Amino acid sequence: NLRPVGIVGAGPAGLTLANLLRQGGIPCVVLERGTREYIETRPRAGVIEHRAVRMLDEHGLADRLLREADRHGACEFRVNGQAHEVDYAALYDGQTHYVYPQQEVVKDLLGAFLDSGGDVRFSVTDVELHDIETSSPYLTWTSASGERERLDCSFIAGADGFHGVTRRSIPAGAVQEFSHQHGIEWLSILAEAPPSTHKVIYALHPDGFAGHMLRSSTVSRYYLQVPVDDTVDNWPDERVWAELHKRLALRDSDWKLTEGRITEKRILDMRSYVVEPMNHGNLYLLGDAAHIITPVGAKGMNLALHDAEVLAAALMEYTRTGDDAGLRSYSEVCLRRVWRAQEFSQWMVFMIHRSPEPFLSRLGQARLEHLIASGSSAGYFAQNYVGP
Ligand code: FAD
After folding, report:
1. Which residues form the FAD-binding domain (predicted)?
2. Could you report the per-residue pLDDT of 70-93, keeping only the tens digit for each?
3. pLDDT at residue 160 above 70?
């Protein structure tokens, strides 16, 4: 009688792990703080790497994604009002990104898990972890109807995001934390506006970075570099559009930015964080619970999916054969990819932002000019951007 794996959090990491375990015949229960509607409509990421899509497809979890997602293999940098296209797919074996909103990934994963008889407890509160250093860890929580409940687990998977409870349950001093604030902030804007571009745009402007990201045929995401400690109140809609028009403008071109109703405006703290190792006792952390990365380079959800794949394989190997080699190397395998992504993201952050120190801004621009002019630099960008 196998005790289930207790998974805290029904985001991309937790739900991918849940599906893979279920397919492998390993029982699991997912505890989620939000309602089903909340997790299925929470817009965040939108760009998935080819490797992550292949993994989902291998497990029969990418049917709708492959039908509906747009594939993208080029992006555009704008410097001083001039556009430079980088065809990264051509530079990296034809590999592309898939543009498919995160909430659709969650919807597909949740649907597949529930259709196969999976057990998700929504709207739980006060989740607590117990005895994680023993072979009989257990979870307690308050259910939607107000009862205190308990689950005896074989392992606990902490997939409850950066602000969740699982990482905080590890005793102080048992893990090392690495954290860095990049000295910049972004105003992130979601609007009901059709994309004004076929490619993601990264624009360097004397007033700061601006980005135009793709989400769907009716919705677009934009980013504006804003001073640290700026607030959303300083950014009424008219100012947002005026600044986007200015920073994204092209010289000698009739290119225009299409406006739409703004549905979300938030300040993103451009912070990176990694915990090492990603496990303690029989608690294994995955996704944002273990590491966060700036949205530059679009890596967060992709790392979360990779962690889930590695952990599922390790848990299955252990359950089937008793061999714990995969569990012992779980953290090391995931962290290698995490630090690779952190290094690339930092490389890109430096390249596209305006620094308060003019010297550093010019260095960043020099890096971008090198990328545009040099095949080897463009190759480095392509391989890291679309994912190893
Ligand atoms: P989450 O998605 O945060 O899921 C955690 C789940 O746990 C949530 O459902 C939450 O409700 C639940 N939970 C939290 N606390 C508890 C608790 N105590 N008990 C029970 N449940 C709990 N990444 C990319 O790869 N590409 C992109 O283009 C990209 N763009 C982004 C844009 C923005 C604006 C933001 C904010 C992020 C972006 N990311 C991107 C990052 C990406 O969204 C995250 O890395 C991803 O959501 C991580 O997935 P996760 O499953 O680890 O955590």
Report:
1. 4-344
2. 999 999 999 989 999 999 999 999
3. yes
Q: Is 371 helix (H, G, I), strand (E, B) or coil?
A: helix
Mutate to test the pocket of ligand 1, among 102, 221, 264 (most ligand atoms within 8 A of CB): 102
Per-residue model confidence as pLDDT tens digits over 291-312: 999 988 889 999 999 999 999 9
Per-residue pLDDT reduced to its tens digit, 109-130: 999 999 999 999 999 999 999 9
Centre of ligand 1 to C-alpha 13, Å, is 8
What is this structure's pTM?
0.94
**Alpha helices (runs of H) in the chain, residue ranges in sequence order:** 12-23, 36-40, 50-58, 63-68, 88-91, 102-115, 237-248, 300-321, 325-352, 358-373, 375-386
Ligand 1 binding site (Cβ under 6 Å of any ligand atom) = 8-14, 31-34, 39, 44-47, 102, 124, 127, 159-161, 164-165, 188, 268, 287-288, 295, 298-302, 304
Q: Which domains does the chain have, with CATH numbers?
A: 5-69+98-178+272-346 (3.50.50.60), 180-270+356-386 (3.30.9.10)
Residue 78 CA to residue 85 CA, distance in Å, equals 9
